Amino acid sequence: MERTTWTRARSRRKRVLYLSSPIGLGHARRDLAIAGHLRRHHPDLQIDWLTQPPVTAVLEAAGERVHPASAWLDGESRHIEELCGEHDLHVFQAIREMDEIMVNNFMVFNDVVQESPYDLVIGDEAWDVDYFLHENPELKRFSLAWITDFVGWLPMPELGEREALLTADYNAEMLEQRARYRRIRDRQLFVGNPEDVIDDTFGPGLPNIREWTVANFEFPGYVTGFDPPSADDVRRSRRELGYAESELLCIVAVGGSGVGEPLLRRVLEAVPLARADLPELRFLVVTGPRIDPRRLPEVAGAEIRGYVPDLYLRLAAADVAVVQGGLTTTMELAAARVPFLYVPLQHHFEQNLHVRHRLERYRAGRCISYAEASDPQWLARAVLDQATSQVSSLEVESGGAERAAEMLAGML
Hints:
Elements: H1 2-8, E1 15-20, H2 26-41, E2 46-50, H3 55-61, E3 65-66, H4 76-82, H5 91-96, H6 99-115, E4 120-124, H7 127-135, E5 143-148, H8 160-180, E6 187-191, H9 209-216, E7 218-221, H10 231-241, E8 248-253, H11 261-277, E9 281-286, E10 302-305, H12 311-316, E11 320-324, H13 327-336, E12 340-343, H14 349-362, E13 366-367, H15 376-387, H16 400-409
Parallel strand pairs: 1-2, 1-4, 2-3, 4-5, 5-6, 6-7, 8-9, 8-11, 9-10, 11-12, 12-13
Helix pairs in contact: 2-16, 6-7, 11-15, 13-14
């Protein structure tokens, strides 16, 4: 009944199916921003979203249309969390073990576009759809825009030769697919600038990643998903959070997945030591939507909250931050020019290599290892050092969402 009702509700106006990766919340924020600007070009545009929790909750709160078929998708975030160790995620291996999930989710997508045609499909790192359309090009009956913030599977050096061979093999397959079926992706957008692409090879005998990406992608610049907060915005945010101007605020956040709990516990162990040296320092620990705040210990000087909407504005109100190594949160801090520590998940090639490359280009944040964070005294000192440091990072450009939307608007 739901499927029939949804299909009959379609109209003659232009229609977009938006696929937003559910691994973390960063995709949702930037995709909402792009969608908002796309509607300025086409005011009567209908956008349906095919995605999973936790992204669906963000979309529903924003009043967006989540396609009912989203309920039939297998959980990617759950799969990722099941394979995590203690602040450890071999993300390349996790992707390799997602075959059944990807097949199911592509079949759901294919049913949706067959039953209810769309003028444009936007895939923000919708790896299942991209891969199986290249394998079955006859199924493409719509325009497809592909969005990503990294290109190239890269081996973690400590995982040895086999990891290097496997990532190179995956890259070679992608390059071959793109060479044979260039018509599958009608436009390709890299979220950032050419310098943000890592300067490395896809593997032995394969092209340079940056050179290939520059030749094949368009670059709208980084998409923050928000306008830089003003000084008044920051002061208002601090008041809403309950922090006085005389206090120093450290925000601790681990994104939208459930893999960050061990890091939160380590920071909480360091809180008393840091406050012993700097009593006016207070901590706001944000667990996100997939970690129960009640599982964490109560510590004097630390407030623990679950999901916090508009986290970027809260981060901008901080004097220092400790976060995981995800791109969205770290770039939000870079845009707000807040000093921060970031702790990439072990064996997570994107956080350790692609994201770190971009942050180093912006001269933003200080990367520390999870092993270093295991010593509460060391971590407390690192937080205090960052809290008193001068920010010298490059400015993060604005307007990326508008430029991306302009690139996509012509496809309609």
